[in-house]
Amino acid sequence: MDKNIPHLKEPDFLSNILKPIEPEPSGPSIWNKLYDNLAANPIFAGGAGLAAIGVGLTFAKRFGVIANTQLRRYCVRSLELTNENPAYPWVMSHINLHSKFKANSLFLDSRLEFSESGHARMNHFFTPGTGVHYFNYRGKFVKLERNREKSLIHKDGVRKPFETVTLTTYGIFGRSKPAEFWHSFLASATQEGLSTLKTGLVVYQAIGPEWKRLGNPRKKRPLESVILEGNTLENLFDDVVEFLASEQWYTDRGIPYRRGYLFYGPPGTGKSSFISALAGRLGYSICMLSLSERTLDDLRLNYLINNMPPKSFLLLEDVDAAFAPRDPETPTQQKMYEGLSRVTLSGLLNALDGVASSEERLIFMTTNYKDRLDSALIRPGRVDVQHYFGYCTPEMIQLLFMRFYYPKKVEDIDPKQALAIKQKELLELAKNFSNAVLSLKKNISPAQIQKHLINYKDDTQAAIESVEEIK
Ligand SMILES: Nc1ncnc2c1ncn2[C@@H]1O[C@H](COP(=O)(O)OP(=O)(O)OP(=O)(O)O)[C@@H](O)[C@H]1O
User: Fold this and answer.
1) Regarding the domain with residue range 203-388, which homologous superfamily does it belong to in the CATH classification?
2) pTM over 0.95
3) Looking at ligand 1, which residue's alpha carbon is closest to its atom 5?
């Protein structure tokens, strides 16, 4: 305020109006008072306490649910299956078989099997009984809960109680896919179950325009029982497996999805044995066709090759026998082939090339005389892999010997004698046998060795000492 301006006295009524508002004397607000009153009220305080506890519990429960869900997502893996599932018995026996602790209460599942000859056999399977069982399966803790319901199901022609099994395992699975653990578990159980199924090798023969099963399925020959030089067996096997896994690759490039193999070499060197064992291992059947069959003509050949049962190999044995060479060495040679077959080379080539490109086709041809084959038949595209099956090498002779005399079961070995000692002994004998065979200075086929060893199947020493009998 300017000091030179005379100070005007405010009239009294104004001073009353302009009187500054004095702050209320501090004390409990209305809300505080309300709160105090309510808090002092024992009925209300009790109710509020209960409500607070209720809210707290609701939150705790919610939190528990969330925590439980998260825990289950990261640490628990469950699998439920019923006895309507075909894999059910395999899963049950697999877990019992591969667990550190076995179930104490067992369920017996017996199956009666009749062979075609009428021979009967009873197979018993033990699975964990009803209730809860705990296992240590390959380092993982697994809880198995088997429940039996009152309702019945029809299975294998009999009425059985409906059952459910829940398998639960615990661990830190993190964000891994929920079913990952059970996928690998099921893969092992299924593989084991399938291996117990006795499926034989089905061989088809061409009867008229159709493929007909040739007798009953044959016993599958283990692939390892065919002894080939070096890594031949593994390489050929890998080649076929790779082809079977490459359908998309062929489709993408518009290449007919087929592969041809030519196995050539002297008789008795394992060409047919390898093809049968390979088909058995891969779960394929074999369609056998003889080109020199008198009733086979180009038309029928074409139809048969293009209408094979699924998952089967085409086997053309002694493929040289059907056609005369384009340039016969002698007129007699030309005559030899005349009238032998009604199938012509061009008919065969057409049939092979005509195979529907989208269909998987594996064609195996065998011959003892590769040089007699027309080059058109074995050109790439028709024959993609050629392999020579030769006479025995020293290593093959040893392996044939070892395989022949190797104890079938570990129980066959004297318990006091370690397997390693037995193997070492056998290896020594195999070397002696191989040296004896080599001293003959002749080409010997695996079939000849096999025949000789069969003659001395119980006497390794005699087999070595009588090698000159090998013819
Ligand atoms: N490499 C081998 N390993 C194991 N056994 C073999 C082998 N080669 C031949 N054999 C045995 O010899 C017999 C005849 O073999 P296989 O029919 O496979 O010979 P192949 O080469 O197909 O003969 P061919 O050319 O006459 O048709 C079979 O019983 C088989 O067990």
Assistant:
1) P-loop containing nucleotide triphosphate hydrolases (3.40.50.300)
2) no
3) 226
